[in-house]
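ZP: hey, is the adenosine-2'-monophosphate complex queued? I don't see it on the tracker
AM: it wasn't, my bad. submitting now with these inputs:
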Amino acid sequence: MRLFVGLDLPSEMREPLALLCRGLGPVRWVPAANYHLTLRFIGEVAPDRAEEVDFALASLRVPGFPLRLGGLGVFERNGRIASLWAGVDRHPGLDRLQAKIETALQRAGLPAERRRFSPHVSLARLESPLTPTIAAWLQANNLFRTPEAAIRHFTLFRSYLGKLHPTYTVEAEYALESTFIPS
Ligand code: 2AM
């Protein structure tokens, strides 16, 4: 099974994100139901390893924290734009959660994640040079910000790859502690 750990975005963030996703011609917009923030990509694991992952995540004790999305960016691959994303305001609570997940998963036997944590919410997938239309879209929406929302749990998602889009299902949800790190 193909797994990743992430935040299921609160409903007050989904709508403003969905409103951004228009006006670019042939790009594959991420369906609003798929919006999420990845904390740790795990990839394919056997069912018994998935149980160990679940056990490790369930043992974490991490406070809740506020989350706000803002700004837009692109990831490039081979000199072409591969995805468009909304940025995330860095907050010590988010960084603490990500670090604790990484440590717990390594203790559970997963290889270390080599890539630096770069929180984002993917909005579109494409394979295109930076066209004037994309540049204009980035510029027009760069002041985008969502309201702040309280994060009180994180999620183990299962991903089923599809022809056009993957489907994500919730394998498990883990409550954060009731203590809350303010903004
Ligand atoms: P992305 O949105 O920037 O592509 C499920 O695939 C989630 O895990 C996506 O949010 C994806 O990020 C992220 N992810 C991180 N590393 C990945 C990898 N090596 N392969 C696929 N998805 C990855």
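AM: back. Residues 4, 38, 41, 83, 122, 159 surround adenosine-2'-monophosphate (CB under 6 Å).
ZP: great, adding it to the tracker
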